[in-house]
Amino acid sequence: MIELRDVTKAFGSKKAVDHLDLQVRAGELYAFLGPNGAGKTTTIKMVCGLLAPTSGSVLVGGYPSGSAEARQLLAYVPDQPYLYEKLTGREFLRFVVEMYGLEPAHATRKIKEYIDTFEMNDYIDELCETYSHGMKQRVVFASALVHEPKILIVDEPLVGLDPRSARIVKDLFLAQARSGVAVLMSTHLLSIAEELADTIGIVNHGRMLAHGTLAELRTKLQSDASLEDLFLALTGGDRPNLVGRNATSRVETVQ
């Protein structure tokens, strides 16, 4: 559903993304990991059609990213929720379903479904400007899912959520993936990636260092370490000597 082929994105002389290959299949929850400045957000913006690659191709559902066909398939949840503050949450959700052309009766059912799912009945008819960060985040997630996208892109999805909201979101990610949606999740919370992801991709300096299931990464790196220690070893973190009991002395790029 998402495919990046030899993608480079340069800003002047700096390459934010450097010959990156990445694929997320239908029904797959892909955790996209990397330190700050690794190129994750630039990659996500290219998938969403907000940036054009300098070279290479970005396909979404087989269509070029940014095309009308690709936008119809995709939902994007950024790390900072943005709502129209002078609308109520319900009005914002109705704006979204009208923008995607959902049939009115079906749209009304879907809006009610996600208001109930995210437990928003107490405030959904108040102006968005009165919402806390966590309340805004719930509305943004509902707006991303209400038109039933085939591809879901999320950037730091659990920022500002209380534990109950975080559990609702994590369960929804799994349910979306199991229903056939391709989910690309960028996060700094390695425990979330370890808990949820079918596939893990680790990038640094715009290049893919390793990808696969956690078990595959451990096998390739000859280590039984945690994802945190594998991540630190690959990206030059604080504990590269803790890759695992069976680790080799030097960690190489793994594909």
Please state the CA-atom Rg, rounded to the nearest Å.
Answer: 19 Å
The structure class reads alpha/beta
Fourth-level CATH superfamily:
P-loop containing nucleotide triphosphate hydrolases
> Any idea of the CATH topology?
Rossmann fold
Helix-strand sequence: EEEHEEHEHHHEHEHEEHH
**How are the strands of the largest sheet arranged?**
6-7-8-3-9-10
Structure description:
The protein has 255 residues and is of the alpha/beta class. The chain has a single domain (2-212), classed as P-loop containing nucleotide triphosphate hydrolases (Rossmann fold, 3-Layer(aba) Sandwich), CATH 3.40.50. Helices cover 36% and strands 24% of the residues. It has 9 helices and 10 strands. The protein has helices at 40-47, 68-73, 89-99, 104-117, 133-145, 163-178, 190-196, 214-220, 227-235; strands at 2-11, 14-24, 29-33, 55-60, 63-64, 74-77, 151-155, 182-186, 199-204, 207-212. A 6-stranded mixed β-sheet has the order 6-7-8-3-9-10, with helices on both faces. A 4-stranded antiparallel β-sheet has the order 2-1-4-5. A hairpin with a 2-residue loop joins strand 9 and strand 10 (207-212). Helix 3 packs across helix 4. The model is unreliable at 239-253 (pLDDT under 50).
